[in-house]
Design a protein that fits this description.
66 residues, alpha+beta, two-stranded antiparallel ribbon, 2 strands, globular, binds iron/sulfur cluster
Length: 66
């Protein structure tokens, strides 16, 4: 997990495929709002192994959502 506690998948640029835009906005504000909302991670090193993640997960490839 990254050192920054805010650096969770829910606020990451690579999270959100398959999740409705409105729900994604809510998750970015509060990753606890939808812990069941899993998404494939789009980071190149994770996409190749088809990693699926929840909003409270995280990794060192975290990049803040635009
Ligand atoms: S696994 Fe890493 S790169 Fe993928 S969405 Fe989560 S923090 Fe972002």
């Amino acid at each position: 997990m990254p050192d920054n506690p805010q650096a969770t998948c829910g606020s990451c640029e690579y999270f959100g495929d398959g999740i409705a835009q409105q729900q994604l906005v809510e998750i970015r504000v509060n990753p606890e709002s939808a812990p069941e909302a899993f998404s494939p991670c789009a980071a190149p090193r994770n996409a190749e192994i088809h990693l699926s993640v929840g909003p409270r997960a995280g990794c060192d490839a975290w990049k803040p959502a635009a």
